[in-house]
Amino acid sequence: MDTKDLLKKVRKIEIKSRGLSNQIFSGEYQSAFKGRGMAFSEVREYQVGDEIRTIDWNVTARFNHPYVKVFDEEREMTVMLLVDVSGSKNFGTQTQLKQELATEICAVLAFSAIQNNDKVGILFFSDQVEKFIPPKKGRSHILMIIRELINFEPKHKGTNVAEALRFFTGAIKKRCTSFLISDFMSSSFENELKIANRKHDLVALRLYDLHEEEFPNLGLIPIKDEETGQTAWVNTSDKEVRFEFKRAALERNGRLEDLFKRSGVDFTKIGTHQSYVKPLMTLFKKRGAKR
Prior knowledge:
single chain; two-stranded antiparallel ribbon; 8 helices; elongated
């Protein structure tokens, strides 16, 4: 993609995602992802019911009367986007590719974050960490991230979620909110997921395409695995083949959802055939209600 086309595409995504984050997501984002830290605000006289732990003993001694410290919740956060850029990102039989869906979701999350004065960083991963952009504030930083999302060419095609989580846990020292965006067709990552979610506030967004979960009846067709490059011929007119494919997909998805629940990770799934607005809003509202 040449520079002119790239900038045009970045601008188009910016207009759409900024509009959505202004109109729809701003309030929901704030209630769903409040800063966890507490910042000292002021000292006031002790009132019945105040916690003993909040008494400021220095001020109390000076005025011979109990005073307590008042804290405000710190609003400023760091948001990390962990994005799967493996070969399967180029799959999409419906209205868009998984890569295009991931780009728009990241843009909406990033603009929601900077409206909240949060820093945003991104990590691209395949079967290894491909690129890490440290968290920063500002529109120009977000536009650079969107450019990378559109134009980034990974060196590898496989998927290793565990490797991405290990790097992320080591690289980001202070607690942050992180969005793990992938189709999760990866080898085991349960331990790394639990460790990352203990240290950070982790949210999983599973991107999928309908035809990864259910074959249409198209006769004998070639199926190429984007990650391995291998092609296999599949007889989709055979009911048994279609049933077995669907059963295996449902089983895989069930195991994944169980893993997220066991690990205490909030998650949702978003298909290439649908708008991401409703699944994200539902997730945000659910999180906001829990707080």
